[in-house]
């Protein structure tokens, strides 16, 4: 015998509230006390309540589609393409099509008439399209937080970008580096802002000056190569370069080769002078040609895995990240999550030959 479907009225009765209050509590709307909202959600979870998606679509004049807004530079970056595929796959599991929005965006009202909700990935306060998307009148989930003025409740899926860069800096110093440098992304996204801030705070905490050179958010290998050449010419004592932008690591390797720096093999002077914690004084002599240079990346992908030598990198699991963003949006649309829910996404450190440490750790 097929079990009876749990209805919103069942939830309301079990929670001791009206049907309208139960609906507001589950949707995160209306003026419902936090304690009541929590009780209703707990009861709904216990009873196994699932909203009627067909009725919900009729009430909202649903389009059956959600929109995806990516940074303007995304189309040539491995990371965002994998993220998009993951988001599409997850949205389809809830019967929703994914509409890729033009980088320039569109007026919020026009967007709201075409989609049920929006995914806005790595939103920058300087992106003129973002405020209109966040205020489009449909549920919004951002991939990383929006650091501009808030226009309304939105969900978010975030990574601990400070922790991932800290792991890279700790790793290269454990491998003998004492003058690490970061090719930091420009812009005001949460990712770029966190990386630049972390380089400073980590350096102060460890008594090590982290040299920071700003490069474009989506720097090409050629741009990374030029920045690395300038960096090593200005400070030959730099013995580790961490590049942030996706796909830029091969440029760092080319610069190292051109300058006679052997990637993945720390020089004897660095290895012998490293402290017991792997960190030495920021004062050092200039590294001669042939001295070791450790190379790592803040974003893993085809370019880092296929490089020679393969490059140590933070794997942000972009396809899983896209799925997580789409899943949160689906949950908000289906009243399974509040509109301002924030979820966290995990990353892993993949250590490779560029830091002379084969294998990988999570």
Structural summary, described in words:
- The chain is α/β, with parallel strands linked by helices and 362 residues long.
- The chain has 3 domains: 8-50, 434 Repressor (Amino-terminal Domain); 62-159 and 318-348, Rossmann fold (3-Layer(aba) Sandwich), CATH 3.40.50.2300; 161-315, Rossmann fold.
- Helices cover 40% and strands 15% of the residues.
- The chain has helices at 8-15, 19-27, 34-47, 53-60, 78-93, 108-112, 130-134, 161-174, 190-206, 221-234, 249-258, 268-273, 302-305, 318-333, and strands at residues 65-69, 97-100, 117-121, 140-143, 155-158, 180-185, 211-215, 240-243, 262-263, 292-297, 312-315, 342-344, 348-350.
- The strands form 2 sheets. Strands 6, 7, 8, 9, 10, 11 and 13 form a 7-stranded mixed β-sheet that branches.
- The longest helix is centred in the middle third of the chain and has 17 residues, at 190-206.
- It is elongated.
- The two termini are 46 Å apart.
